[in-house]
Amino acid sequence: MTWRDPDVTVVGGGMAGSEAAWQLAEAGLHVALVEMKPCAMSPAHQSPLLGELVCSNSLRSDDPIAPAGLLKQELRKAGSMVIACADHHRVPAGQALAVERFGFARAITERLALHPNIRIERRRIDDLPSHPVIVATGPLTEGKLGEVIRAELGGDRMYFYDAIAPIVAADSIDFDFAFRASRWGRDADAPDRDGEHDRAAGGDTGVGDYVNCPLTQEQYRAFVDAVNAGRKILPHDFEEPRYFESCMPIEVMAERGPETLRFGPMRPIGLSDPRTGARPWAVVQLRPENRYQTAYNLVGFQTRLAYPEQQKIFQMVPGLHRAEFLRFGSIHRNTYIDAPARLGASFELRSRPNVRFAGLLTGVEGYIESCAMGLVVSWLLVAELTGRAVTPPPATTMMGGLYQHVTAPRERDYKYGPTNVNYGLLPPLAGARKDNRKQRMADRARSDFDAWIRERPEPIRQSV
Ligand SMILES: Cc1cc2nc3c(=O)[nH]c(=O)nc-3n(C[C@H](O)[C@H](O)[C@H](O)COP(=O)(O)OP(=O)(O)OC[C@H]3O[C@@H](n4cnc5c(N)ncnc54)[C@H](O)[C@@H]3O)c2cc1C
Fold first, then answer.
1. What are the C-alpha distances in Å from 360 to residues 135, 338, 367?
2. Closest ligand 1 atom to the C-alpha of 144?
3. Most-buried pick from 181, 410, 415, 421 (CB within 10 A)?
4. The CATH number of domain 166-328, selected from 3.10.580.10, 2.40.30.260, 3.40.50.300, 2.40.160.10
5. What is the tens place of the pLDDT at every residue in 313-343?
6. CATH tag, 8-162+334-455
7. Which pTM does this prediction carry?
8. Cβ < 6 Å from ligand 1: which residues?
9. Are 243 and 155 a contacting pair, CB within 8 Å?
10. Cis amide bond preceding 394, omega within 30
């Protein structure tokens, strides 16, 4: 190795950092990849290998129509090293891409260690360097570096817990039961259970923003009983279940008493069902999740119920009998930053542009999503450092949908939260045709992604 000072330092050799370091090195940049393992270990990491999968060994579906399958296709086309290692170490798992985790992590470690443009440094970073750096320290970033980042963000733009409500596809809501209305016909100033003020607080589009699923007394009772009986996911040892009143899991509320939910997220106050003219006994309120209004979240329904239980129990709600869940609710220890508020279009800190973020810290969720954001941030950085024109991935692709999620400006009072890939991230198809929606969106994504890759300036300088 003939170089001393790196062009870029990548902090963290997980899904995002490993991919980013590889892409930068392949483009001819000299990379210091700084990984704290084995000198220091997070409570979830166990091996000194890079690219360690902290939990499941599945990189999810490989079906080309499934969002995760489509994203992996895009990553393969973009030359993802992490996905190449996964393909090489795949184990039989039906439609899913599951891997033999040690072989997978060993392959990533070896490829990075043998790359002449990469130097792996085993130490913990506690401060932000002044040269170009990509911070990819993941969901358990803490200690001094966590404090430094938090201070840099202005104190209140870093989150340490992730309380996510389920999201359903808009066209799977049954409007024979559900109705559109905002509370008191305005929903202007009442904070939600999850602490957010309604979108209409600015006084623009209040009436009808919300979708309401009304429940009778019997239906409400049956729902609460099902929540109480449903299987819950237990927190990890290092996840102290410390809930804020404003983001209490529904099962904790249900446990407190049969009426608690009805005075919480399921309160019917200020609503009347246009079919009966009466106030329902209880309601589940849904709010648009994306600017395309193709996805709605169940307001205040963060939960630790197991995914199959969520599907079964939430489909008991009138209007949601056939709901298609784009993602399920969850609550877990996590660290992510309010990316739309603090990062620019290349994932750089607006207040300190030499610092970029990648992976789960940016507000994406999952191994492959983190890897994808490692790839995107490194390509944008290569473009900047080498003067090549690289545009972000198109919004119609899964990679572009994630990019938009992280960077698109939000409305006032929007509560930013992590996301997996899902079709709700993509713009709707033009026209009124409703059949084969996913297939057609996947076809559009493939064709737009191929065009984007073709336009990428070549050649990227190979390793030296
Ligand atoms: C307990 C748990 C279970 C999960 N299970 C799943 C799952 O089953 N499926 C799924 O898709 N996603 C899962 N996730 C989310 C998963 O962590 C992310 O999807 C993905 O690993 C994040 O990638 P990343 O590159 O951002 O961070 P990571 O893969 O976590 O990599 C971060 C790396 O940075 C290093 N590091 C941290 N701080 C420093 C520092 N100061 N200096 C130097 N190095 C540092 C760490 O040692 C680590 O190697 C889970 C998360 C947790 C916490």
1. 10, 12, 8
2. 41
3. 421
4. 2.40.30.260
5. 999 999 999 999 998 998 877 889 999 999 9
6. 3.50.50.60
7. 0.82
8. 11-17, 34-37, 42, 44-45, 54-56, 124-125, 136-141, 145, 236, 359-361, 366-367, 370
9. no
10. no
